[in-house]
Amino acid sequence: MTLEAASASRQISRGRTLTLVGVVSLIALYVMALQFTPPERFQGLAQKIFYIHPPAAYAMQMAFIFTGIASLLYLLLHDARFDVFAEASAEVGMMFGAIVVITGPIWGRPAWGTWWEWEPRLTFTVMEIVLFGGYFALRGAVRDPAERAKFAAVMGLMALVLVPFNHLTVYLFASQHPQPVVIKTTKPELPLEMLRTFITGFAVFTILYLGLVMQRYGIGARHAIQEAADA
Q: CA–CA separation, 217 vs 214, rounded Å?
Protein backbone atom coordinates (compact mmCIF):
# COMPACT_ATOMS: atom_id res chain seq x y z
CA MET A 1 0.00 0.00 0.00
CA THR A 2 1.15 3.53 -0.72
CA LEU A 3 0.83 6.78 1.16
CA GLU A 4 -1.82 9.17 -0.17
CA ALA A 5 -1.81 12.97 0.17
CA ALA A 6 -5.60 13.18 0.60
CA SER A 7 -5.53 10.60 3.38
CA ALA A 8 -2.68 12.47 5.08
CA SER A 9 -4.70 15.70 5.05
CA ARG A 10 -7.69 13.94 6.58
CA GLN A 11 -5.51 12.49 9.33
CA ILE A 12 -4.13 15.93 10.17
CA SER A 13 -7.61 17.48 10.30
CA ARG A 14 -9.06 14.71 12.46
CA GLY A 15 -5.99 14.73 14.67
CA ARG A 16 -6.30 18.47 15.32
CA THR A 17 -9.93 18.04 16.36
CA LEU A 18 -9.11 15.13 18.66
CA THR A 19 -6.13 16.98 20.16
CA LEU A 20 -8.34 19.98 20.90
CA VAL A 21 -10.78 17.67 22.69
CA GLY A 22 -7.82 16.25 24.62
CA VAL A 23 -6.50 19.67 25.66
CA VAL A 24 -9.92 20.82 26.87
CA SER A 25 -10.30 17.51 28.71
CA LEU A 26 -6.87 17.98 30.30
CA ILE A 27 -7.90 21.38 31.66
CA ALA A 28 -11.12 19.87 32.98
CA LEU A 29 -9.13 17.02 34.54
CA TYR A 30 -7.00 19.36 36.61
CA VAL A 31 -9.99 21.44 37.68
CA MET A 32 -11.50 18.13 38.77
CA ALA A 33 -8.29 17.18 40.61
CA LEU A 34 -7.85 20.51 42.38
CA GLN A 35 -11.44 21.38 43.22
CA PHE A 36 -13.40 18.15 43.47
CA THR A 37 -10.87 15.52 44.62
CA PRO A 38 -9.81 15.43 48.29
CA PRO A 39 -6.10 15.77 49.18
CA GLU A 40 -4.23 12.60 50.09
CA ARG A 41 -3.85 12.12 53.84
CA PHE A 42 -0.03 12.04 54.02
CA GLN A 43 1.17 13.75 50.82
CA GLY A 44 -1.29 16.63 50.75
CA LEU A 45 -1.36 18.79 47.64
CA ALA A 46 1.82 17.18 46.25
CA GLN A 47 -0.24 14.08 45.47
CA LYS A 48 -2.29 16.07 42.93
CA ILE A 49 0.56 15.70 40.42
CA PHE A 50 -0.31 12.00 40.23
CA TYR A 51 -3.39 12.79 38.18
CA ILE A 52 -0.93 13.82 35.44
CA HIS A 53 2.28 11.86 36.07
CA PRO A 54 1.11 8.20 35.85
CA PRO A 55 -1.24 8.88 32.91
CA ALA A 56 1.64 10.57 31.07
CA ALA A 57 3.88 7.58 31.84
CA TYR A 58 1.17 5.24 30.57
CA ALA A 59 0.85 7.28 27.35
CA MET A 60 4.64 7.25 26.91
CA GLN A 61 4.79 3.46 27.26
CA MET A 62 1.78 3.01 24.97
CA ALA A 63 3.48 5.16 22.34
CA PHE A 64 6.70 3.17 22.55
CA ILE A 65 4.80 -0.14 22.42
CA PHE A 66 3.01 0.92 19.24
CA THR A 67 6.32 2.11 17.80
CA GLY A 68 7.74 -1.37 18.38
CA ILE A 69 4.70 -3.10 16.89
CA ALA A 70 4.70 -0.83 13.83
CA SER A 71 8.44 -1.42 13.44
CA LEU A 72 7.90 -5.19 13.43
CA LEU A 73 5.10 -4.86 10.87
CA TYR A 74 7.34 -2.73 8.66
CA LEU A 75 10.08 -5.36 8.75
CA LEU A 76 7.56 -8.06 7.83
CA LEU A 77 5.49 -6.20 5.23
CA HIS A 78 7.75 -3.35 3.99
CA ASP A 79 4.75 -1.00 4.01
CA ALA A 80 5.86 2.63 4.32
CA ARG A 81 2.77 3.49 6.35
CA PHE A 82 4.09 1.47 9.29
CA ASP A 83 7.40 3.34 9.20
CA VAL A 84 5.59 6.68 9.20
CA PHE A 85 3.36 5.57 12.07
CA ALA A 86 6.33 4.24 14.07
CA GLU A 87 8.11 7.58 13.79
CA ALA A 88 4.94 9.49 14.70
CA SER A 89 4.25 7.34 17.75
CA ALA A 90 7.86 7.56 18.94
CA GLU A 91 7.83 11.35 18.64
CA VAL A 92 4.63 11.65 20.67
CA GLY A 93 6.08 9.18 23.18
CA MET A 94 9.11 11.42 23.64
CA MET A 95 6.81 14.35 24.38
CA PHE A 96 5.00 12.36 27.06
CA GLY A 97 8.38 11.20 28.36
CA ALA A 98 9.34 14.85 28.88
CA ILE A 99 6.16 15.35 30.92
CA VAL A 100 7.07 12.30 33.02
CA VAL A 101 10.59 13.46 33.87
CA ILE A 102 9.34 16.99 34.67
CA THR A 103 6.36 16.04 36.85
CA GLY A 104 8.18 13.22 38.67
CA PRO A 105 10.71 15.49 40.42
CA ILE A 106 7.94 17.98 41.29
CA TRP A 107 6.40 15.21 43.39
CA GLY A 108 9.74 13.70 44.45
CA ARG A 109 11.06 16.85 46.11
CA PRO A 110 8.42 16.99 48.89
CA ALA A 111 7.92 13.20 49.05
CA TRP A 112 11.54 12.00 48.96
CA GLY A 113 13.35 15.19 49.94
CA THR A 114 15.26 15.22 46.64
CA TRP A 115 14.49 16.20 43.06
CA TRP A 116 15.94 13.00 41.62
CA GLU A 117 16.85 9.52 42.80
CA TRP A 118 18.56 6.95 40.58
CA GLU A 119 16.24 4.16 41.60
CA PRO A 120 15.28 1.38 39.11
CA ARG A 121 12.04 2.80 37.67
CA LEU A 122 13.54 6.23 37.03
CA THR A 123 16.70 4.72 35.59
CA PHE A 124 14.78 2.53 33.13
CA THR A 125 12.60 5.47 32.13
CA VAL A 126 15.66 7.57 31.32
CA MET A 127 17.13 4.62 29.39
CA GLU A 128 13.97 4.39 27.29
CA ILE A 129 13.98 8.10 26.51
CA VAL A 130 17.70 8.07 25.63
CA LEU A 131 17.22 5.01 23.41
CA PHE A 132 14.40 6.66 21.51
CA GLY A 133 16.52 9.78 21.26
CA GLY A 134 19.01 7.53 19.48
CA TYR A 135 16.15 6.31 17.29
CA PHE A 136 15.63 9.85 16.01
CA ALA A 137 19.36 10.46 15.69
CA LEU A 138 19.55 7.36 13.48
CA ARG A 139 16.65 8.52 11.35
CA GLY A 140 18.33 11.88 10.89
CA ALA A 141 21.66 10.31 9.92
CA VAL A 142 20.46 7.96 7.14
CA ARG A 143 19.46 9.67 3.89
CA ASP A 144 18.07 6.74 1.90
CA PRO A 145 14.39 6.32 2.88
CA ALA A 146 14.33 2.52 2.60
CA GLU A 147 17.54 2.06 4.58
CA ARG A 148 16.42 4.62 7.16
CA ALA A 149 13.10 2.84 7.64
CA LYS A 150 14.78 -0.56 7.98
CA PHE A 151 17.42 0.51 10.49
CA ALA A 152 14.92 2.55 12.50
CA ALA A 153 12.52 -0.40 12.61
CA VAL A 154 15.22 -2.65 14.05
CA MET A 155 16.04 -0.06 16.71
CA GLY A 156 12.37 0.55 17.49
CA LEU A 157 11.84 -3.17 17.96
CA MET A 158 14.90 -3.44 20.22
CA ALA A 159 13.68 -0.52 22.34
CA LEU A 160 10.36 -2.30 22.85
CA VAL A 161 12.13 -4.81 25.09
CA LEU A 162 12.67 -2.13 27.75
CA VAL A 163 8.94 -1.44 28.20
CA PRO A 164 7.97 -4.57 30.19
CA PHE A 165 11.16 -4.33 32.26
CA ASN A 166 10.28 -0.76 33.19
CA HIS A 167 6.86 -1.88 34.40
CA LEU A 168 8.33 -4.74 36.44
CA THR A 169 11.10 -2.77 38.17
CA VAL A 170 8.96 -1.90 41.19
CA TYR A 171 8.35 -5.62 41.74
CA LEU A 172 11.80 -7.01 40.90
CA PHE A 173 14.02 -4.51 42.71
CA ALA A 174 14.04 -2.61 45.99
CA SER A 175 12.49 0.65 44.87
CA GLN A 176 11.31 3.92 46.36
CA HIS A 177 8.92 4.38 43.47
CA PRO A 178 5.24 3.86 44.37
CA GLN A 179 3.71 0.63 43.09
CA PRO A 180 0.68 0.73 40.76
CA VAL A 181 -2.60 1.54 42.50
CA VAL A 182 -4.98 0.67 39.64
CA ILE A 183 -3.31 -1.91 37.36
CA LYS A 184 -2.74 -4.59 39.99
CA THR A 185 -4.00 -8.05 40.92
CA THR A 186 -5.85 -6.84 44.04
CA LYS A 187 -8.64 -4.30 44.35
CA PRO A 188 -7.51 -0.63 43.91
CA GLU A 189 -6.94 1.05 47.28
CA LEU A 190 -7.79 4.63 46.28
CA PRO A 191 -10.98 6.25 47.58
CA LEU A 192 -13.68 6.44 44.91
CA GLU A 193 -13.28 10.21 44.35
CA MET A 194 -9.54 9.83 43.73
CA LEU A 195 -9.96 6.68 41.64
CA ARG A 196 -12.50 8.38 39.38
CA THR A 197 -10.18 11.32 38.72
CA PHE A 198 -7.18 9.01 38.30
CA ILE A 199 -8.92 6.87 35.66
CA THR A 200 -10.17 10.01 33.92
CA GLY A 201 -6.52 11.06 33.57
CA PHE A 202 -5.73 7.86 31.68
CA ALA A 203 -8.67 8.47 29.34
CA VAL A 204 -7.56 12.06 28.71
CA PHE A 205 -4.00 11.07 27.86
CA THR A 206 -5.27 8.33 25.54
CA ILE A 207 -7.24 10.98 23.63
CA LEU A 208 -4.17 13.23 23.49
CA TYR A 209 -2.03 10.36 22.23
CA LEU A 210 -4.48 9.50 19.45
CA GLY A 211 -4.93 13.11 18.37
CA LEU A 212 -1.21 13.92 18.34
CA VAL A 213 -0.26 10.70 16.54
CA MET A 214 -2.88 11.26 13.86
CA GLN A 215 -1.52 14.75 13.22
CA ARG A 216 2.09 13.63 13.23
CA TYR A 217 1.28 10.67 10.98
CA GLY A 218 -0.36 12.95 8.44
CA ILE A 219 2.61 15.33 8.47
CA GLY A 220 5.04 12.42 8.17
CA ALA A 221 3.05 10.93 5.29
CA ARG A 222 3.16 14.24 3.43
CA HIS A 223 6.92 14.42 3.94
CA ALA A 224 7.39 10.82 2.74
CA ILE A 225 5.29 11.50 -0.38
CA GLN A 226 7.33 14.60 -1.18
CA GLU A 227 10.58 12.75 -0.52
CA ALA A 228 9.55 9.99 -2.93
CA ALA A 229 8.58 12.57 -5.58
CA ASP A 230 11.96 14.30 -5.27
CA ALA A 231 13.94 11.04 -5.53
A: 5
